[in-house]
Design a protein that fits this description.
With 258 residues, this protein is α/β, with parallel strands linked by helices. The protein has nine helices and six strands. Helix 2 (64-75) packs across helix 3 (90-104) and helix 3 packs across helix 7. It is globular and about 50 Å long. The relative contact order is 0.17.
């Protein structure tokens, strides 16, 4: 099984593969329930970065270029057929850079890149820069990222796990900073962006700026919830609808490089 996948692709499953990238400090459990909510014809495959959940003993990745190389080596064999990406917050940057790498190296791009709760990669991120101050206390870090909503309840009562989660979160912030450091290149695939009107960390206008990251179709939609609306019911349904619409209106014949 691929190291980065949290679940094994089902044998004989015909649905398009939707690879899901979690937010900073999060893990594959962010997408619990997506298989039931995303709708028919889609196989949900959460990606789990090292340093958390079942990979908590693996060295954390803080360099964006290294992450993309590892993702390509680990998941590349699953991307020869039509597929799509969804990335939430930091995961949107990881999904975008991975898609950009696929295009740059002449490989099949995703049919759809869907992103949520993340400002476009060409924009500055003063919040991330502020949170990377080495003297920032843990409580201030948690509060700056949406309070205790950012940390699942089971972890808040287990101090040893909480400290590990915050260490992973800090490493992920360095990763997010690295993923923003390269210039933005528009992608040839469709792009769907999702925002919350009450997200305290990212404004709808910042999310809408993803429209400059594609030369194909762009759609924007607001959904219910705060920054972590990935855990709600509306987002996976919306992503499923967008992906089925894309499949119905585009030619998904075998990809020919060049």
């Amino acid at each position: 099984m691929q190291r980065y996948l949290a679940v094994r692709p089902l044998t004989g499953e015909n649905g398009i593969r939707l690879f899901c990238f979690h937010h900073a400090g999060g893990g594959a459990m962010s997408f619990a329930g997506w298989r039931q909510r995303v709708g028919p014809g889609i196989s949900v495959l959460p990606v789990r970065l090292p340093g958390r959940e079942t990979r908590r003993k693996d060295p954390r990745v803080t360099d964006g270029a290294r992450l993309v190389e590892e993702l390509d080596a680990d998941l590349g064999s699953l991307l020869d057929e039509p597929y799509a990406f969804y990335g939430h917050s930091m995961g949107a940057l990881a999904a975008y850079r991975f898609a950009e790498h696929r295009v740059r190296t002449g490989q099949r791009p995703p049919e759809l890149l869907a992103v949520g709760a993340c400002s476009a990669p060409q924009l500055p991120s003063p919040l991330v820069d502020a949170l990377l101050r080495p003297e920032l206390p843990d409580e201030e870090l948690i509060a700056s990222l949406g309070g205790h909503e950012s940390i699942p309840a089971p972890l808040r009562s287990r101090l040893s796990w909480l400290h590990g989660t915050l260490a992973t979160l800090r490493a992920d912030l360095f990763l997010a900073q690295s993923l923003r450091s390269a210039p933005m290149t528009p992608l040839p695939c469709s792009l769907a962006a999702y925002a919350s009107e009450v997200d305290p960390l990212v404004s709808p206008a910042e999310v809408r700026s993803w429209e400059h990251c594609t030369t194909a179709r762009f759609t924007f939609r607001t959904v219910l919830g705060t920054h972590f609306f990935v855990r709600g019911r509306e987002l996976p349904r919306a992503v499923g609808e967008a992906l089925r619409c894309e499949a119905a209106t585009s030619d998904v014949t075998p990809y020919q490089a060049g």
